[in-house]
Specification:
This protein is mostly helical. The protein contains 14 helices and no strands. It has one domain. It is 85% helix and 0% strand. The radius of gyration is 28 Å and the shape is elongated.
């Protein structure tokens, strides 16, 4: 029996009580659903970082998985196995090797830093001092550092070097928890690869139910934003680190593989490879290798400018969104949510931008 028919059958004085009872039921239902969602979130909270990372990885590499599946006779299980092994090789193995290298080389880094600080800095090449706008400032700062006594400079920087080494060791000490998160991410990503169409269909149905056609468009734009970040940020970081690593190996800088891994992490964190490359240039000049130091300086300038060329092209290829919106989402998301904010920030801004544009461009209904 419908509510209207029930109200027609009830006495007039009973209708307000029925409506009050409906309001109470609705309030209790909302509270119950909210409590259920909060409890579910609390239970699943330890798995949320792995779920978020796995979702980002699967969305960004879904086309790659489909291409692998097409080459493996259309077998989804074989494609999932290949993608899972590739993730293990790309994520877990380099992370383990880099962490072990940091632990083993922590004392060497401290000793090397002390030896570099104890050496006098060579004179700066004249062509650098002649650079427009920045040449005089670089020469003045170089002369200031070179003129300071090496013992005084070493005494000032040695505590900071020790603090950095201790921090690296402390961070490396959490390798077990980090590897567990990586393995959990790989496992969830494998499940999403195997059931990707079902998961995507559920998300689209929920978006359609929630906001109609605008909700479906928001889902597609979110996927495009994730792919844009994966292309523009991650690929650019990998390319810059590879080019910088070639320069390090070519000029004879020690531990080029470890420094290349560090440049990858700095590039993803939007810091760039500049700290590693500048340190390599200083080390070459301090080691009385001015020729290779100059070569490394030119190589560093080329490597540092690659992101200005690659990133806009790859981001525009990945999503039909304003470039400034993506960059602001990457930087703001990184500051707000950490490394995973690289993907969350652009998605949030893309959703807000899409809804705002749809609301602004919506036409008012014609007058009666």
């Amino acid at each position: 029996m419908s509510r209207v028919a029930l109200e027609d059958r009830l006495p007039a004085e009973a209708v307000p009580r029925l409506r009050a009872w409906d309001l109470t039921r609705i309030q209790l239902a909302v509270v119950g659903v909210g409590a259920l969602l909060a409890a579910s979130f609390w239970v699943l909270r330890p798995f949320l970082p792995a779920v978020v990372w796995a979702t980002m990885i699967v969305v960004a590499t879904w086309s790659t998985m489909r291409a692998v599946q097409a080459r493996l006779w259309g077998r989804r299980s074989l494609a999932v196995a290949v993608m899972t092994l590739a993730m293990l090789a790309i994520l877990a193995v380099p992370l383990t090797l880099a962490t072990l290298a940091v632990i083993e080389r922590a004392d060497d880094v401290v000793e090397w830093s002390r030896s570099v600080l104890s050496r006098p800095l060579p004179p700066l090449p004249e062509w650098i001092a002649g650079l427009p706008l920045v040449g005089k400032k670089i020469a003045a700062e170089w002369a200031k550092v070179a003129g300071a006594p090496s013992q005084e400079l070493a005494a000032r920087l040695a505590p900071h070097v020790r603090d950095i080494a201790r921090w690296l060791i402390a961070q490396a000490g959490s390798i077990a928890a980090l590897l567990f998160q990586f393995l959990l991410t790989v496992a969830i990503a494998a499940i999403l690869y195997a059931r990707g169409e079902i998961a995507a269909g559920g998300v689209l149905v929920f978006a359609q139910r929630l906001a109609g056609s605008h909700g479906v468009r928001v889902v597609y734009l979110s996927a495009g934003a994730i792919r844009a970040v994966a292309l523009g940020i991650v690929v650019t970081a990998l390319v810059q680190a590879a080019v910088g690593g070639i320069g390090l190996a070519m000029t004879g800088v020690p531990h080029p593989v470890l420094l290349t891994c560090i440049m990858v992490m700095l590039g993803i964190a939007q810091i760039g490879p500049a700290p590693v490359l500048v340190g390599a240039v200083i080390w070459l000049y301090a080691s009385e290798q001015p020729f290779w130091g100059t070569v490394m300086l030119g190589w560093s300038l080329v490597t540092g400018t690659l992101d200005n060329i690659l990133r806009p092209i790859l981001i525009r290829k990945g999503a039909d969104l304003p470039l400034l919106l993506i960059i602001a989402g990457v930087i703001g998301g990184l500051l707000a949510f950490g490394l995973v904010g690289l993907f969350i920030g652009p998605v949030v801004l893309a959703v807000a931008y899409t809804l705002l544009v749809a609301w602004v461009n919506a036409e008012d209904p014609p007058p009666a």
